Each structure stands twice: as structure tokens, then as C-alpha cells.
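hiii, so i know i said id send this last week but things got crazy w the move. better late than never?? heres the sequnce for the chain we talked about at the cafe, plus the structure i predicted for it. fair warning i was half asleep when i ran it
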Amino acid sequence: MKFSDSHNDALYKFKSFKSLKDYVFNQIEKTDADKIFCAYYSYNNQPNCGVKDMKNRFNLINSLSNKIVNSVENSWFLNKNNIDEFISLKPFCCTLTHNYSNNLCGGALEDFGFTKWGKQVVQILETNGIIIDTAHMGKKSFYQFIEITQNPLFNSHCGFDYIFSHPRNLTNEQISFFKQSKGYIGLAFYNKFFGEKLNIELLSNYIIEFINKYGDEILGIGTDFNGIKKYYYPTDIKNYNDFVNLEKKLKEKNIDNNIINKFLNLNLKQKIRT
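okay and structure toks below
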């Protein structure tokens, strides 16, 4: 069965062409991956990072696989002089911030809202078909964002506050806004978001619990592979080759194949513009 992933940090982890090529060939091309979102990431004010560097990295990874979807994590570098070039690169989505505030809005670890420029960026990007990814957005920024966005809500990788309280996790109220807007939430395979060492058994239970609470239309996979240390991965899901075991576990729990397919692939695939 095909699967898609709304957040992978391969562009950040694998700096050289060879290492990136090896990863794409062995972990994307050799699997049943349908679409993998590879995010261009940089820390706030990191030298030599920006639209030009992003363009080079996008060109590189797109030359390796047609299964890859371009995305951006932390858009701190956007300004009035480069936003048109940024738009021309057509990333599917971008987070405006990371865990800390920047010139656009507040991050998950700080209680700041949107700047004037940040609100303008939302309007400009959405007008040009680029989705704003609410991952890493602070709660104050999130609630300001839902007042100005024109799109279904999108969060590429997170956990859930009803399972474990973490600044990056969505609350029940936030999840209800995703459901109302017919949006998308990518489930991150990150131990810290769940307060315990994850495995396939626990993940399958969390997936079923979410579907029972909120339905089967908005949840998908947002692993955060390559953005977290491997000891924070589930004990038995270390890479995409292990996804077959997650599918098997969900089937063992008598989850309908159509629901499994929605979670593994279709809920995300249907959001991607053609």
C-alpha cells in the first residue's frame, strides 16, 4: 500500500549531493512512497540561508525523484525584495516560524503573535497558492492565523495535547478547527510529543483513538524523519521500510482498508495540487 509523509528533514540532514542521493535512492525510491515532503530548513538569521540556497537545494532534490514535494520550515528570511522569487519556486507549503519568534510571527515556545509583515506574507502566499503550515506556530499566533487564513488548516508534523502536554502539540480545540476546515494534520513519530517511548502498538492505538474522536478525513503521517535524533523514533519504525508493519498492525486491529489508506496516503495526497 502506498504512503505519503508531510514532513521529512532530509534537506537539512544530508548536506552533500552523495549523502542526499543515497538517502533518496534507498529510503524513497526503493519503497512504496507516493509523496514525501522534504523541507528546506534554517535557523533564524542563519548565514547563507535564504531563497537562493533554497532554490539550489530544491533543484537538487527534485532531480533525484518525482516523489518529492518541496516545502519550507521557518520562513524567517522572507522580505519584500525576495518574496516574488520565493513564490516562483512554488513550495507546496511553508511554516512561518520554528520554535521561536521571528519577523513574521511567534513560535511554539514563545507567547507572541503576528507582525504586520507576517500578516501580509500570509495574504501574499495564499493568493499565490502556497499553503501556510501551522507546525511550530505558537498558540497566540495560531488563533490570530485562523482569523486571516482563507485555506483549510494544515499542520505537517505534531502530536496531540490530549495524549501528552507539549508546546508543539495541538489541543482538542485546535484539532476541531482542522476538522471544521477539512484540513490536514501530520502525526509526528517523535517520542517527546507523547511522553513515552513509542512503538507500533502505541502508535496504532493513538491513530485509532484520533479517528474515533475526529473521523478519518484529516489525519496522516508527518514523521519528522531526519529532523530528530534516531533514539527519539519509535523503537520499531526507524525508516520507511518499517511502514509495512504499521499497516499490518492496523489491519490486525480490524481497521478498514479504506481508513488505513486514508491515513497512510490519501488524506495528504488529496491536498497536493496537480
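btw The chain has a mean pLDDT of 96. thought thatd interest u
miss u guys!!
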